[in-house]
Amino acid sequence: MISSTKIEHQRELYRRSSQPQERLAAGLALADLLIDDNNNDGALAVLAELGPLCRDGRQAGAVLRRNGEAHFRRSEFDLAIQKLDQAQASLAGEAASLEQFYVYRNFTWVYSRQGYMDKTREFCEKAKNVLSAVEGATQEEMNLAQGSYIHMVAMLEGAAGNKEAAIKHYLEEIEILAHTGGRSKLAPAYINLANIYYTKGRIAKCLKYQLMAKDILEEAGNRYTLSVVYNNIGELYWSLGVLEKSQEYYDYHMDVTRICENRLSDVLAYSGMARVAMGQGDIPRAEALYLTALRVAQEVGSPGKEAIILGELADLYAEWGKFGPALARLDDAERLVAEIHNCNSPRYSIIRAKVLVRKAEAEAGGEQRASLDQAKVLLEEALAQPMRLPSEEVVSATELAIQAHYFLALAGSLLEDQPAAEAHILQCLRHID
């Protein structure tokens, strides 16, 4: 939490400011502190008072940009985009500035959370062009902006499944921020870097960076981002099979988000708790939690998260023997991914193959053969190419490869092809080692 003394000091400066321009500057500084403290209602109240004080497009853009950021923090994405559109219009006639850069940066925040990666790329490019034309900023301000731009590029590389490029950019960002006195700003880079290592199956590295982010955020009292870290650590413990510890971190997450209202992070926590319930064999509870996650993802307007949850729900229905609903959820997930032009995770193909193999277990003759042949094609295609996973995927490439070989082995066994079944089991064991 931002020091209450610091906030109250700035609030007093704002109250005592009598000149309009002095009051505007004090109000913007106060709004920044309130947003950092997750007091978005307080920030919006201050910003509402600042509009009449603006005397040009640059100042109006500064107020509107912070409005958009406060709504973003509340997972009110449509309102955030509306305010950022207005900020962009206000700044259109002004010289290139860091204010304009941060408007475009905030657009990338919103669109990436929703899963619209084409839009994210568009505004990342606009941010780059503005940054190259900015004049008059201090070196520290430029370094912080450059770090923020590199973060956007790394995020896009991660979303496209280009893991090594993403890691390179995140490490570059960390190097810039470490020399700019921006320790509190390192946490998002650590979190995203950890997520990349998770999809690579590098669990120890992932945990290292998540814990580094956790220390920074707990020290700073940044509950908004801390909720994300608690969720991620919960996922890590789930992947290790430590379900009790996983649930403990999801509970921490829910405690924090009751205060800071990070509803998008709640989507991840509900789906994480659903995986814990699945691991405990409580399928009805898992379904209820996934459906809650899906509802919240739809309410906040994040089709990217919605697609991920639909995939997980399909996986659950496959285990439950509900093959029709499983395939329907997969169709919905792949439709959403195509609509938002996102990286299509091979996980959907592997889950579809899993449904077909499970379905084949209850079939016979030509019907069984057709299901297994279709499943084998999907699994062999998934294994024949690099596992390009979006950085927000909930399983690693290694885990997906193990699943693919396991279901190829099961298909081989059902087809009475023991050599093929044994070969794929050996591949599973090699990946586990």
Provide a descriptive summary of the structure in words.
Among the domains are: 72 residues, Tetratricopeptide repeat domain (Serine Threonine Protein Phosphatase 5, Tetratricopeptide repeat); 115 residues, Serine Threonine Protein Phosphatase 5, Tetratricopeptide repeat. The longest helix is centred in the middle third of the chain and has 21 residues. It has 433 residues and is mostly helical. The protein is built from 21 helices and no strands.
Overview in brief:
The chain has 433 residues and is an all-alpha fold. The protein has helices at 4-16, 20-36, 40-50, 57-73, 77-91, 98-114, 117-133, 139-159, 163-178, 186-199, 203-220, 223-239, 243-260, 263-279, 283-300, 303-320, 323-339, 347-361, 365-384, 397-414, 418-432.
Radius of gyration (CA) equals 24 Å
Given the C-alpha coordinates, what overall shape results? elongated
**Can you count the beta strands?**
0
At the fold tier of CATH, the topology name of one domain is Serine Threonine Protein Phosphatase 5, Tetratricopeptide repeat
Q: Residue ranges: pLDDT <50 for 5 or more in a row?
A: none
Distance between the termini: 43 Å
Per DSSP, the total helix count is 21
Listing every helix as H and every strand as E from the N terminus to the C terminus, the arrangement reads: HHHHHHHHHHHHHHHHHHHHH
The main sheet comes to: none
